[in-house]
Every structure is written in C-alpha cells, then in structure tokens.
Amino acid sequence: MRIRRIHPIITGIIHTALRTCEGVRFHPGPVCSSCGSHLSGYDERKKRFAILLEDEISRPLNVIIQRSYCHNCGMIAVPEEPFYPGTRIGSPVVDLCRSLSATMPYSRVSTYLEMMGVQVNRWSARHYSCMLLPEEPPVEVFGMQIPCSI
Residue 142 region, left (φ>0) first, then alpha (ψ -120 to 50), else beta? Predict the structure, then answer.
C-alpha cells in the first residue's frame, strides 16, 4: 500500500501544539490527595514531553514537573497532568498514536509520525495504541484522524 502525503498544515498544527507545552511547569496542587493537608515544595525536574524532528535533527521538548511533600503523611505528590500512567511521552503524542492506529498498522503509525516530524519508534507506538486509556475523540483534518488533545 502506498503511503499518502501528509499536508504541511497538519505538521504545523502538531508542532505548534507540542511546542506550546515546552517549559511549562506542572504541580500537583496545594492539597495532599491522601490526607487533605497542605503540600510544600519538594523539588523540580525536567521530563521529556516529546521529540520533534526538525531538518532531520532530533529536538527534545521538556516540561518541568514540580513534586511536593506532605508533612502530615509523608507522601510525595507528583502531577500526572501531561502524561498517562505508564508512558514516557506526553499525552497528546500518545493520543496521536492511538488515533492513527485506528486506521493503520503500528509500523505505519511510526512512519507517519516521523513524516509529521514526531519521533516515536514502532514498538512504543504499538504499546501506546494497546493501552487501556480514555478515548480522545478524533477530528478529521485533510483526511487524517487527529485527536482533539492536539
């Protein structure tokens, strides 16, 4: 089967959506989820959100994850907002893998993502596509199913 061309507008939309998350700070909130007491800052770390391919060069996009500590119960709270549990890349990229895999095989998903300028290997695309996650409704853009999270 022949691989269809991807419209440059789709690539631009995806790159813009992923770049808007670069450097964004995520925190768990002011209240402990297990005991309800006040959280205080613990530390911050960078976590890879996505890898964009620009002129055949890999460019990682990172977000900042702020962990907080509860003095009452001793729990360290970590925000889960930009990532699904058990994944290493941001939730919009996982949603993109899942929406593309609904219409094509996993190996082609990784090829299409690479053509769009997003680096995900085929085994990761397969893993993300098979995960039991909430469905993100897709929107058809130039003949391709793109998730609303993008």
Answer: left
